[in-house]
Amino acid sequence: MNQFSRRSQEKELLDGDSIDFNDLSQNLKELRFINAYLGGHRITLKGFKSLSAGKKKISICEIGCGGGDNLIALDNFCKKINIEATFTGIDINPACIEYAKENLQNRNIHFIIEDYKKVVFQKKPDILFSSLFCHHFSNEELIDMLQWMKANSNLGFFINDLQRHPIAYYSIRFLTKIFSRSHLVKNDAPLSVLRGFRINEWEKLLKLSGIKPVQIHWEWAFRYLIVYRNIPM
Q1: Please, what is the end-to-end C-alpha distance for the chain in angstroms?
Q2: For 119-160, how does the pLDDT look when each residue is reduced to its tens digit (9 = 90+)?
Q3: Average pLDDT across the chain, whole number
């Protein structure tokens, strides 16, 4: 069977329980570079703009925040255009949160070490989002995630994740083999593409989740931006 016909079920090394902190730090450092220079932050900002238009005060929460680079990019943007924003990052891995805090540069970002499903907000954030997080989960787990994001956001949520495509797979495999210093990135970057999605799979997941109305945008380089906007009753 063509390896691109279905999502891979192989787990990434990053999902393991015992990762050396130095190895994890190098992995997060390189992921930050990938997000900055291969369009990841641009897509995250696009998702944020689509839900925050006209707002001058807003709360944002990322699930699976990793090293916090997405939140830093959003903080920079909000400061630039004078949006008063509060940020929360949720990650189940304490080492990721430790790394994130070390790289905050005195920013006001609150972090929670927890499985996102167990988090109960005193006040729901206006916007929930995830970036390169969904592909770590099974289709069944994603249905629960989509419903949780809908139930726990005021304005809506957006998702930035990978398209499963041969060009994306072979390109990132080549680039990480040549330039990466992280064995985690070398293994997980191409595998994450194989765990990524095609548009019909997103459409099916969203339908099964009862999430509508929703927009699905293809973005360079080989990602999808999913945007759900809550419509007040």
Answers
A1: 46
A2: 999 999 999 999 999 999 999 999 999 999 999 999 999 999
A3: 95
Residue ranges of the alpha helices (H) in 92-194? 94-102, 139-151, 166-179, 183-194
> 102 pairs with which residues across the strands?
none
Tell me phi and psi for residue 98, to 5 degrees.
-60, -45
Is 40:223 a contact under the CB 8 Å cutoff? yes
DSSP-assigned states of every residue in 38-96: SSHHHHHHHHHHHHHTT-SEEEEEEES-TTSHHHHHHHHHHHHTT-EEEEEEEES-HHH
Q: What gap in Å lies between CA 13 and CA 22, rounded to an integer?
A: 14
113: alpha, beta or left? (left if phi > 0; alpha if psi -120 to 50): beta
Q: In 3-state terms, what secondary structure has residue 189?
A: helix
Tokens 């995250």 identify what position?
Answer: 44
Structure tokens that stand for 172 in this block: 């990132």
Q: Report the C-alpha gap between 7 and 131 in whole angstroms.
A: 18
Amino acid at 126: D
- Span 83-103, pLDDT tens digits: 999 999 999 999 999 999 998
